[in-house]
Amino acid sequence: MVSLVRPTTPPSAEEAALARASSRVLSAVLQTRAGSQRIDFRDEQGAVHSVTLPAPALRLLLDVLTEIGQGHTVTLIPLHAELTTQEAADLLQVSRPFLIQLLEKGEIPFHRVGRHRRVRYQDVLAYKQRIDAARSQALDELAAQAQALGMGY
């Protein structure tokens, strides 16, 4: 099981500014379209350590820096992660009892570990995509009805 680490405070103004500057540089590096990039880091003693990173990892790092640069906190969750019901409820921004109802109705697959329910992160994402698509379709239908009735929308 993967434990989720949730930062309790957003980045400071200095951290956000540093993240914005770093993301601009990294974005320029990614424009080269190379399959990997070598990055040099200096430790506290000034020694240089080189790391070669694949382009997908650099794109992920760019996304993280962009979010931090906007003052947002970031949490990384592997797609294969198993979540507790509270973690899944937090991701969907619903109460835990409501999530339990969804699980018991079969809306989201789950399994038990002892007495506890576990939900796969990718199943939570799939559910969220389904309900978001249904909401979008309902809004489109309402907008079409409003236009057909000449309601000024």
Write the layout of secondary structure elements.
Layout: H1 13-30, E1 36-42, E2 48-54, H2 55-69, E3 82-83, H3 85-92, H4 96-104, E4 111-113, E5 116-120, H5 121-148
Antiparallel strand pairs: 1-2, 3-5, 4-5
Helix pairs in contact: 1-2, 3-4
Protein name: Excise: DNA binding domain, excisionase family
GO molecular function: DNA binding
Organism: Tepidimonas sediminis
Word description of this protein:
This protein folds into 2 domains: 57 residues, no CATH class; 67 residues. With 153 residues, the chain is α+β, with helices and mostly antiparallel strands. Strand 1 and strand 2 form a beta hairpin. The chain has a 3-stranded antiparallel beta sheet with strand order 3-5-4. This is Excise: DNA binding domain, excisionase family. One of its GO terms (molecular function) is DNA binding. InterPro entries: DNA-bd_dom_put_sf, HTH_17, SinI_DNA-bd.
Query: How many separate domains?
Result: 2
The proportion of residues forming helix, as a percent range, comes to: 40-55%
Total count of strands: 5
Indicate the structural class. alpha+beta
Distance between the termini: 48 Å
Give the low-pLDDT segments: none
GO molecular function: DNA binding
Protein name: Excise: DNA binding domain, excisionase family
Organism: Tepidimonas sediminis
InterPro entries: DNA-bd_dom_put_sf, HTH_17, SinI_DNA-bd
